[in-house]
Design brief:
The protein has 414 residues and is of the alpha/beta class. The chain contains 13 helices and 16 strands. Bound molecules: pyridoxal-5'-phosphate. The site of pyridoxal-5'-phosphate has 15 residues, from helix 10.
Length: 414
Amino acid sequence: MKKIFEPHWERDREAFFSKVDFSKIKTPSYVIHEGVLEDNLKILKKVKDRTGCTILLALKGYAAWKTFPLIGRYLDGVCASSVNEARLGREEFGKEVHSFAPAYTEQDIREHLQCSDHLIFNSFSQWDQYKKTIMGCNKKTMKGNNKNNNEKNKDRTIECGIRINPESAGAENDLYNPCAKGSRMGVTIAEFRKHGDGLDGISGLHFHALCEQNVDALEDALFRVENSFGKYLKRMKWVNFGGGHHITRKDYDVDRLCRLISTFRKKYGVQVIVEPGEAVALNAGVLVSSVLDIIENDGKIAILDTTAEDHMPDVLAMPYRPSIIGAGKPGEKKHTYRLGGLTCLSGDFIGSYSFDRELKPGDRLVFQNMAIYTMVKNTLFNGVRLPDIVIMDKTNKVVHVKKFGYGEYRERLS
Ligand SMILES: *Cc1c(COP(=O)(O)O)cnc(C)c1O
């Protein structure tokens, strides 16, 4: 198979972003670059074109809806993990909405009937509980007299699936490993066998087993899925491979992914769905911040106008050390600093970095790969103002700025 990778933008995103002028951006700001985003989308589109699979954006990781029209030109829809995400997908993305949650309330189901196309259940007990409601709604829809659906959605029927747990190796960190021992995610084969003959109304199986992984991890998961659930696969219309595929990462083996998907499709006669979050906006945005103060305690500490706790929570949750354009590891360059955030949390440190020049108040620091799992996850702890969301077009021109203020803080309380 010919290599499908034809980068439009520089693959080295640090080199690319180091040439972008952020000096006019008010800090702190998340800056999304449409050029890089589109480059990622082109890679994903090629996977679609090569294999005929469906690719959805996982809103959990990235939901900057101003960019949905661009994403919608390349991808098929979104996957949602709550009613709110599903509604955002329906209203702002306007294509397919596939939903999964560890459990649904009756109210959730009623709302999902309005905005989801696929509903995936985490257990047979939940499926049994809501099966009648959903089938009833589908029947009405088919007769075309469902008052709940608007004209455009008249033919919409909800397809239901079961999330399975392939018990594959998964991610190393249990916080992000849906296949860890004792996981609450998905039906294991031992449980599935007890219900496997009652699959009426189930049109697909879903597994989500990866986190930031290459195609070898998918291969392992698929091997487990086929071994354990093989006899059920042929009865399905679709199989959803979940997210965690780092498809747009430099070293990702896109060709091998295409071969895997095509082979699986042919073998089982199913539609294959992939729902990456990270890969869609990987390295497509940065967080621009400013130094506010320099203090000393067991080395130099720079206090920034951003915070790990509020603005980049995965830095503390994972934890990991985000990279900064032009900065080195501690001790690598002449001046080393610990970078600290604006909240009163004592551990609100982003990490240690070194710089060629001494830092001083007003200096700008640009954190890389900050479009994903930031805007969707940030908090208002301590009432610290949220960063602006800035969108730059392909020519590095700012085309959109969303500001946040006191309103968001007050609205979340009563
Ligand atoms: C988190 C998640 C995704 C997206 O994962 P990424 O790691 O962002 O690609 C997709 N599907 C499900 C069910 C998820 O929980």
